[in-house]
Each structure stands twice: as structure tokens, then as C-alpha cells.
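Justification of computing resources. Each target in the renewal requires a structure prediction run like the one illustrated here; the chain below, 185 residues long, is used simply to show the kind of job we budget for.
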Amino acid sequence: MPSNDRRPPSVPRSALADTLLERLTGAYAGSADPVRARAMTACMKDAAPFLGIPAPLRRELSKAVTKDTPRPSEADCAALALRCWRLPEREYHYFAVDYLRRHVSRCSSGLLPVVRHLITTVPWWDTADLLAAHTVGPLVAADPALAAVMDEWIGDTDPEAVRAFVEAERGSLAPLSVREALKHL
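Resulting C-alpha cells:
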């Protein structure tokens, strides 16, 4: 069973991930829009830089990137996600999230440490929520023994640190953000 080990997972070798990443970086770089990127970065409170690719175009490019590629193994999924996460621009993270969502049925509980790393590295609602709902959720549903790991993850939340952060930043947080941050403490 996966543990709460905090070391970053190693990136498996994957020819498929190599191919996809080469196609992806070429396609996305060619469609970058620096003006839109600044606005998108600001909208996300500077959590991560963006290339400035609007979602409909990003989805279209992503479809072209994955066209005519074989179904991935769990190692391919892990390698691609971890390598995308090493790239700073958020669109690459979105690609990884979408890819995992599409292929989660090919994965086992062995992917959970990778997903934990993704959720806790450059953590922001835009990827964490989707990973929780569409990758972690199906993994736990397929392997009910993972519920104990979810209980461990919940125990990692430092309630006093969260309360202190919310109080210090309350003026810059939306009311919904405050409610969401505090509702399970």
C-alpha cells in the first residue's frame, strides 16, 4: 500500500512520455501568447506562470499531441505527469491532469504517490480539485484499502497553520475561499 513518504517519486523511463512531451512542448510553445499569459498568471494570483493558451485551443492542441499514440501503461502515465510537472507553465500541468483523468483506469494504487506529489507541488485548486475528483477518487473506488491512505492525507492538514493563514490573508481572499479553507477544520 502506498505510504505518506514525502520524497518525490522517481520518473519511470517511458518512450511514450518522451514522444508526447516532445510533441506537447512544440505545440504549446508555438501557440503561446505572452499578453494573455500575463493576464492568466495574474488571474491565478501568480501561483504559476502560463503560456497564455486559451482552454479551447489547449484542448485542440492536446488532442493533436495524443493522436495516434498507443494506450499508456501506468509507468507511462506517471512519467508523463511527473515530467509535465517539472515544466513551470500551468498548461503543461493541465495536460498531465487531463491525461491522467483519461487513463486512470489503466493505473493502480501504485500511482497514488505520484498524484500526491502533483497535488502538493505547485498546489492550487485548478489542478488539485481535478486530481482529487478524477484520479484519486477512481483509484480509491477501485481499491477500497486506499481509504486508510486518504485518512492519513487528511491528517496532514495543519489546522492552526490554515487558520493563521486565513486570518492573515482574509482581506485578499474571497469569502468562498475563506469558507472552503475553514469548513473541515
